[in-house]
Amino acid sequence: MASPRTVTIVALSFALGLFFVFMGTIKLTPRLSKDAYSEMKRAYKSYAKALPALKKMGVSSVLLRKIIGTLEVGCGIVLTLVPGRPKDVANFILLLVMLAVLFFHQLVGDPLKRYAHALVFGILLTCRLLIARQAEDRPEREERREEQINAQEKNKVKVS
Asked: Of 22, 51, 65, 95, which cross-links 44 as Cys (Cβ 3.0–4.6 Å)?
């Protein structure tokens, strides 16, 4: 039977992956929801206006939206389907994207209800990453503990 930690990581990875594939697709195409796509276009225009440095670098609102949408779709697919270390990398990239999105929302002065999802999913990504890292560190700690116990037993003096 799988450990609770493994079940948690798999469930979080799958759910987060599907969410980011969905949200990234909404940013890239109006096929899923024309209203949501239009709202994304409007929001990213306001983000680009609030950051004139992006315009100086040649990053338009369309390019910014497509970059973030593509990152979300790509990393979402990795979180959903790819096993191993790439999930942690995708998780970290998505965490950075969520931080950028939170920054954009704060920059334009959006109310909390507009960016609460980014906050929640940022927390979930952080939890998933911490749980995954904790699971990897545990066998090493147990081995070190066993070595310390063995060393202590060898150093004990038998009293007769």
From this structure: 65
Residue 74, number of CB atoms within 10 A of its CB: 16
Indicate the pTM of the whole model.
0.80
Token readout for 55 is: 């315009």
59: helix, coil or strand? coil
Domain residue ranges of the chain, discontinuous segments joined by + = 4-152
- Lowest-pLDDT choice from 7-11, 105-109, 147-151, 154-158: 154-158
Tell the residue number behind the tokens 């995954």, with chain if given.
132
Percent composition of the chain: helix, strand, coil (DSSP 3-state, to 5) = 85, 0, 15
Q: In this model, does residue 7 exceed pLDDT 90? A: no
For residue 4, the model assigns a pLDDT of 81
